[in-house]
Design brief:
It is a single chain. By secondary structure, the chain is of the alpha+beta class. The chain has 2 domains: 28-62 and 101-267 and 309-417, Outer membrane efflux proteins (OEP) (Up-down Bundle), CATH 1.20.1600; 64-97 and 269-302. Helices cover 69% and strands 8% of the residues. It has helices at residues 6-38, 40-59, 102-168, 174-209, 232-242, 244-264, 309-376, 382-417, and strands at residues 66-72, 88-97, 271-279, 293-300. A 4-stranded antiparallel beta sheet has the order 1-2-3-4, with no helix packed on it. Helix 2 (40-59) runs antiparallel to helix 3 (102-168), helix 3 runs antiparallel to helix 8 (382-417) and helix 7 packs antiparallel against helix 8. 23% of the residues are buried.
Length: 422
């Protein structure tokens, strides 16, 4: 390779590595997007949204006019149209008009229903994000736990070589050999269980995302934990702005207020305008040509509010408004408790992660090295070596569990506030 080509090749390698790393970090977002796009419930809610949209014009426009055709004052002795001057053929057109503003008020009530369904869709997306994230991090733990367990199995196999060597020169008992084989078998059993869990989680993820059976995707190493410097008040403010469930309660309060306004219109009259045309034939006896009649009538309802039914409807809507107002405060209170609990868990998990990585893991590895060296020179019992290997395994698994629990807790917190944390 010419020297001048080296920078170009290096640049291409860096781009490829960056693209691979980007693809790794995008796996979770891709799975979430797939789950949302393929969700039967979201598709059902989208149909519900269309239904809610169609109810707005149904309830915010004038009712259809009425046409009446009739025969007026037709004599039954002859059924003749030319016998009596009061006989005629009648056609009338009637149109009902609610009190001005009532249709607009009805439209505002039903437009809230449309927004409520939109928020219902957003809440389902929010829930799916949490569910997929939780499964994804469970998969991350299962795979990392497999890797750690396999490494410790290899470690025990290397110890087995030491034991077998000592056994051949009669410096180790057969019990030590059997004990080591037993520990290796235990790890093989654990690996079988972890692989089964991995397959189960993968199956659940593929079911949610409708991915093919042979599809696969990488999971992160979870080496570093993301920071979380948010306060409870900041997160509550984010929840007020983003959490669909809170917005739904606010909208229900708004809807109740508008329903009270709509019910109040029942205290005002509705109108009906009728235009009637009577066509008359000439009188046969006198050959008198009769003029047609045109009538215009305006009617209106009389809002007597029998039994206080209108007042009761208004009072019901106002009571619902107060109920949703109190429900919002209750939801906010519960949300604050959940957020505070989540922040405390995150702080605890981060402290435990540092304690395990910077303390327990180092001590466990040192204990293993010391035990193995002591056993090789006959100063330490073999059981101490086995315990030391098991201690390293448990600490390593605990570190991975803490880190995945931390990421899952971040996901739960994002669900609570309804948006991703930056």
């Amino acid at each position: 390779m010419r020297l001048g080509m080296f920078p170009i090749v290096l640049l291409l390698l860096l781009v490829m590595l960056n693209t691979f790393a980007q693809n790794q970090s995008d796996n979770l977002e891709y799975l979430i997007g797939r789950a949302i796009a393929e969700s039967p419930k979201i598709k059902m809610l989208e149909s519900k949204l269309n239904s809610a949209e169609q109810r707005i014009p149904q309830n915010s426009n004038l009712p259809d006019p009425e046409v009446v055709l009739g025969l007026v004052n037709l004599p039954v002795n002859s059924f003749s149209f030319s016998q009596e001057p009061m006989t005629g053929k009648m056609i009338s057109l009637s149109q009902a008009f609610p009190f001005p503003g009532k249709l607009n008020a009805a439209g505002e009530v039903f437009s809230v229903d449309k927004e409520l369904v939109k928020l219902e869709i957003e809440e389902e997306r929010n829930r799916l994000r949490k569910e997929v994230s939780s499964l994804y991090y469970d998969l991350t733990f299962a795979r990392k736990a497999e890797s750690i367990t396999d490494e410790n199995k290899t470690l025990l196999e290397s110890v087995a070589e030491v034991v077998n060597t000592k056994y051949t020169v009669s410096k180790a008992s057969q019990q030590n050999v059997i004990k080591n084989e037993f520990q290796i078998t235990k790890l093989e059993d654990k690996l079988t269980d972890l692989r089964a869990k991995e397959k189960q989680i993968l199956a659940e993820l593929k079911e949610l995302t409708l991915l093919s059976e042979d599809s696969n995707f990488a999971t992160p190493a979870t080496n570093e934990l993301p920071g979380s410097s948010f306060t409870t008040n900041e997160l509550i403010m984010l929840a007020k702005e983003n959490r669909p469930l809170l917005k739904q309660t606010e909208l229900l309060e708004t809807k109740s207020d508008r329903m009270a306004d709509l019910a109040d219109y029942d205290n005002y009259p509705n109108f009906k305008v009728t235009l009637q045309y009577n066509q008359r034939d000439e009188i046969a006896k006198t050959n008198t040509d009769l003029k047609d009649f045109l009538s215009l009538m305006v009617g209106f309802s009389v809002p007597l509010n029998y039994g206080g039914k209108t007042d009761a409807k208004v009072e019901e809507a106002l009571s619902m408004k107060e109920m949703y107002s109190r429900q919002y405060l209750s939801n906010l209170q519960l949300l604050k408790i959940s957020v505070e609990t989540s922040l405390e868990k995150l702080a605890s998990l981060k402290n435990r992660s540092q304690l395990n990585e910077q303390g327990l893991l180092i001590q466990a590895e040192q204990n293993y090295s010391s035990s193995l060296s002591g056993y090789q020179v006959g100063e330490v019992e073999f059981l101490n070596v086995v315990d030391a290997v098991d201690m390293v395994l448990q600490v390593e698994l605990n570190i991975v569990k803490i880190k995945t629990d931390y990421l899952k807790e971040i996901s739960d917190l994002e669900f609570l506030i309804g948006t991703k944390l930056k």
